[in-house]
Amino acid sequence: LFSSLVVATVLYYGVGIGGVYVRYWQLADQMNALATLAPSLDDATIQRRLVLKATDLGLPPAAHQFVIRRYDRPPEIRIATAYSETIELPFTTDTGKQHNEDRAAL
After folding, report:
1. pLDDT (tens digit per residue) in 21-39
2. What DSSP letter does each residue of 47-85 carry, written as one string?
3. Which DSSP helix (H) or strand (E) runs through 99?
């Protein structure tokens, strides 16, 4: 009985905390894919697609603020965003700060 309670508690907390990291990695994956496709996309298209992804993931408004920069030497693109997500669990509230940055050669 005790082990079932421990498993249930771990699962309950894990779903709340794990969701933050799943969303983080999904956004990071989209940023990586768009950085790779950057030679054939303009910055407005990249921005629009990233904002749509952040909206679909239900991320806070700060996550919709992307910085997209293209550099000549070396020829590369950098895409970044930073945001915080609050996780409310029984007996505790935690704020996780996320910073995503991706770069790719042009």
Report:
1. 899 999 999 999 999 999 9
2. HHHHHHHHHHTT--GGGG--EEEEETTTTEEEEEEEEEE
3. strand 92-105
Report pTM: 0.82
The maximal CA–CA distance of the chain, rounded, in angstroms, is 63
Model confidence band, residue 3 (pLDDT cutoffs 50, 70, 90)? confident
Residues 100, 81 contacting (CB under 8 angstroms): yes
- Token duo for residue 40: 């054939």
Taking the C-alpha atoms of 69, 70, 74 and 75 in order, what is their torsion angle to the nearest 10 degrees? 150
Radius of gyration of the chain (CA): 17
Instruction: Judge whether 53 and 68 are in contact, CB under 8 Å.
Output: no
* 91 phi-psi bin (left φ>0, alpha ψ -120 to 50, beta other): left
